[in-house]
Every structure is written in structure tokens, then in C-alpha cells.
Amino acid sequence: xxxxxxxxxxxxxxxxxxxxxxxxxxxxxxxxxxxxxxxxxxxxxxxxxxxxxxxxxxxxxxxxxxxxxxxxxxxxxxxxxxxxxxxxxxxxxxxxxxxxxxxxxxxxxxxxxxxxxxxxxxxxxxxxxxxxxxxxxxxxxxxxxxxxxxxxxxxxxxxxxxxxxxxxxx
Length: 170
Ligand SMILES: Cc1cc2nc3c(=O)[nH]c(=O)nc-3n(C[C@H](O)[C@H](O)[C@H](O)COP(=O)(O)O)c2cc1C
What we know:
Radius of gyration: 17 Å
Structural class: alpha+beta
Strand content: 5-15%
Helix content: 40-55%
Largest sheet: 4 strands, antiparallel
Shape: globular
Strand order of the largest sheet: 1-2-4-3
Number of strands: 4
Bound molecules: flavin mononucleotide
């Protein structure tokens, strides 16, 4: 698919078919995600792949009970690793690791579209609850959960600001 088509097609999808995601497809998604840029090429993030109903229920509880989590066959949790970035960049490492994780997640949403999949970015969660449920270390920072699967809805109507509200030319 052309990049322009991917960008036009991507929409937040919150309802998914029961169909599983093929393992090969998931691996291809991760291979392509791994091409994302990162500060100093340190890739200071990790991704937890959640498939079991037990773990999805825990995510659901930590993410304000968003149904998309229970519906999706796979949920990906993107986690920034500030310590890995701090080895090279000191205090700046937190900022960089958050960027690394967020860029990888954004790439993943686009790659998913190219592979016929859909997702929604979930940022509404209770940090401490999510960290506890995922057994994360003190310093590891979850940045988003991406429920991923085959769309069972069209998504909402697309609304955007006018470009002159966003673009400031000198
Ligand atoms: C940082 C961030 C946090 C978000 N959190 C949630 C969320 O918790 N639940 C949800 O359903 N959608 C969430 N979204 C998705 C947005 O609502 C969605 O991207 C926006 O309305 C634009 O719609 P579109 O993605 O279909 O273009 C989030 C998106 C971003 C970038």
C-alpha cells in the first residue's frame, strides 16, 4: 500500500472481529516496527504482547475499562526504558526513551494498516495500576496500549483542525 493510502486509511478502531492475528503477520509487524528511529539508536523501549484473557482483564482494569482491550485479539503495551537511554544521555534519557517508545507505537499503527489490521492508541490509564499489573520495574514507563486486530467497525468521522491553526509560517 502507498504511504499516502495508509495515512488516509488509518483511523482509531475500537471494535474488533474475533479473528486471531496470524503469527507471521505479527512477526512482520515487529520487524517493520524495529526500523523506527530512536535517540542515539538506543531503542530505549520494549513492547509487551498480551493475548491471554487474564492479562487483558488486568489491562482493562488499569485502562478505565475500555472495551477495545477485551475485544482485540492482541494488545501491545509500549514501555519506555529511561535507564537505557540515561546511560548515554543522563537526565535527558527520560525524554528520549519516551520519544523512542512513542515513535515505535506510531509506526506500529501505520504498519498495522498496511497489513490489513487496525488499532487504537490508549493513553487513558492509571500509571501505577498498569505498572503493577505488568510487573514493571520502578523506572519503566508505559506510554500506550494498542489493542490490535481486524476491524469490526468503520471508525468515527474524521475531524481535524484547519492547517492555519497548526502551521505557523515565519
Ligand atoms: C496520546 C493519545 C491518547 C489517546 N487515548 C485514547 C484512549 O485512551 N482511548 C481511546 O479510545 N482513544 C484514545 N486515543 C485515540 C484518539 O481519540 C484518536 O486518535 C483521535 O480522536 C483521532 O481519531 P483517529 O485516530 O480516528 O484519527 C488517544 C490518542 C492519542 C494520540
